[in-house]
Amino acid sequence: MFYLNLGSQASKKIRKPKAWKHSEAITREQLMQMREEFWDTAPHYGGRKEIWDALRAAAEADITLAQAIVDSAGVIVQNPDLTICYDERGAKYELPKYVLSEPTNLIRES
């Protein structure tokens, strides 16, 4: 087991992910289903449930609240868009962009 140096990584400022495009146009309902499936299975990939819960709360919050959540949970932000994070024990948490923002080809309901 290794431990990461919390140094400047722990206080890295987060930002919204860059624009991205899904492989095919999807509806908001499909996007929400993908997100639910990810969050339901995420703890099975390792790491601690409380960190996964904090990451979900951060992903669903505005950027200011998200920053406060990751800071208070002790999440070490590798990528400022939250796609790669670590906990203080060195466990890695990878978040797909679809849980962090909407694709550019989201089908808008009329």
UniProtKB/TrEMBL annotation:
Domain DC-UbP/UBTD2 N-terminal: 11-109
InterPro entries to which the protein is assigned, alphabetical: DC-UbP/UBTD2_N, DC-UbP/UBTD2_N_sf, UBTD1/2
Pfam families: UBD (PF16455)
Annotated protein name in UniProt: DC-UbP/UBTD2 N-terminal domain-containing protein
Annotated organism of origin: Penstemon smallii
